Amino acid sequence: MKYSIQTEGDSPNPISLRTAFFARGTVFPRRRRSWGKLNYALSGACEFNIEGVHYISPPQYGIWIPPGAEHEAKNSQEIHYVSVYVAAAYCVTLPQTPTTLGLSPLLKAIPADFAARGVTCPSSMEDQRLSFVLIDQIRLAPRFDSYLPFSNDKWLDPILRALQAEPGNQTSLAEWAEHYGTTERTLSRRFQTQLGISFREWRQRMRFVTALTWLDAGEPVHRIAIRLGYRNPSAFIAMFRRLAGTTPMQLSS
Domain containing 227 — which CATH number? Predict the structure, then answer.
């Protein structure tokens, strides 16, 4: 069953917030808003299409949508999700294009405090001050093009394509380097400079994204673990919990 969500937070001044659970299969229809929006999961992951570009937001990363950007979203599994709406006047110093943001503990703590107190539109002097701290945290957050970045680099591109085609591929970076006639150090440096993350981190993110797709298709957890190259389901579940904030069984139930 698909659940369509039409409503969003109240008009922000300077911010408004929403923290809620959404059932699997929820669809957030395409729209544009006159304010900016930060979205991130407390558990689960949500998929966005923003101006024709695909984004995914697991708990460690948020998606920033600037005012006026056309966007739509869906979630294949249940998610516990936070949205922070920022009035356009306060978005001038924030990212002007859609981007993935690293989430600091402070950035996540302020919406959590508001949610615990049932505050959706901060109005007191104290809460207004917290609102501006939150806006500053969005401005200062590390920015990434994508949760799972890609590169056309002559050495990285064939490696990334091979891993996507075979997510359980266990070839080490040293073995890839030998195969392409270069050094492990060179490839490691290219992952950091071209993608901003290590080879190990990229492969783990790719496996996580793949696991979400297979869970949505009804694949059993033990089978996913094997297909992704894990020796046992426990290792896969531990990785999944770290990235999703919940277990694959809880997410797919």
Answer: 1.10.10.60
Predicted local confidence at residue 10, as pLDDT? 63
Q: Which residues in the chain show pLDDT less than 70?
A: 1-10, 252-253
pLDDT of residue 4: 43
Domain CATH code at residue 91: 2.60.120.280
Render the burial of 45-63: b for 16+ CB within 10 Å, e for the rest: bbbbebeeeebbbbbbbbb
150 domain-assigned: no
Number of domains in the chain: 2
User: Is 218 a domain residue?
Assistant: yes
Q: Listing from the earlier edge strand, what are the strands of the sheet with 79-86?
A: 15-22, 79-86, 36-43, 61-65, 99-102, 143-144
In angstroms, rounded to a whole number, what is the distance separating the alpha carbons of residues 36 and 170?
41
Q: Quick one: which of 76, 45, 75 has its CA closest to 219?
A: 76
Residue 195's domain comprises 156-252
Tell the residue number behind the tokens 């007191």, with chain if given: 124
- Which tokens in the block code for residue 206? 């790719």
Beta bridge partners, 86, equal 15, 36
Is there a single domain that holds both residue 21 and residue 119? yes
The verdict on residue 196 lying in a domain is yes
User: Residue 86 in contact with residue 12, Cβ under 8 Å?
Assistant: yes
The pLDDT value recorded for residue 253 is: 61
For residue 116, count other CB atoms closer than 10 A to its CB: 9
In the prediction, which pLDDT does 3 show?
Answer: 44
The reply to whether 90 falls in a domain is yes
Residues 163 and 64 in one domain: no
pLDDT of residue 6: 44
The pLDDT, as a whole number, for residue 252 is: 64
